[in-house]
Amino acid sequence: MQLMVKDVAALLGVSEKTVYRWIDDGKLPGYRISGQYRFNRAELLAWTTANRIHVSPEIFLEPETLDAKPASLIEALQEGGIHYRVTGTDPYSCLRSVVELLRLPDGVDREFLYQVLWARESLDSTAVGEGVAIPHLRNPIILHLHKPLLAICFLEKPVDFGALDGQPVRVLFPLVAPTVKSHLQLLSRMSFGLRDPEFKSLLDSQAARDQLQEGVRRLSEQLDQRAARSVETALR
Q1: pLDDT digit string (tens) for 15-74?
Q2: Please, what are the domains in the chain?
Q3: Given 25, 134, 190, 223, which is the most exposed site by the fewest CB atoms within 10 A?
């Protein structure tokens, strides 16, 4: 969830003026995006714990926890799109190209998104082997983003991302999610999809958009069915 100054004030039981004072003093972790401050729920919780500040129990809740429906691969892909011949000669120039191509809502600071993706890649490679990398944020970052976003980006030329198997990366799956829950759900669903032989074949051949979309739709349906069976088993 995107936390604004008024949300932080309510969660901490202080005035908005106090929140701004903490920001000005460099005490409160926040991000200035399009002229307004946004706050990461996890970082805010860590800060309040370290400073022994009382918080409302609502800080532990995210709107998504009220919805049992898991993050959908096909819906996230429809948000992010499929892109071919993405340029770049190293991981960072590839990320720059990807950020410029992503279908982002108005108000999202692309330069800020690039910087946090770059920081994550510098920390540890997001390459998962077999020519695939999944660039994502170390923690979901507060952006003007209300839905998870996943894209398929085929690189114009393979690029060394430092994968453990030594293979250069040919396709990127950049992932940006607004909450921890959707972030982890999409990562786990991507892991499932990348083990699917039919989907891997589509990636290897750089299949057309409609074929890839249909492949992701099929994976989404399989995952939804598995999730439904798990719920039924748990309720017995």
Answers
A1: 999 999 999 888 888 888 778 888 877 678 767 766 767 777 666 555 554 444 667 899
A2: 5-61 (1.10.1660), 66-235 (3.40.930.10)
A3: 25
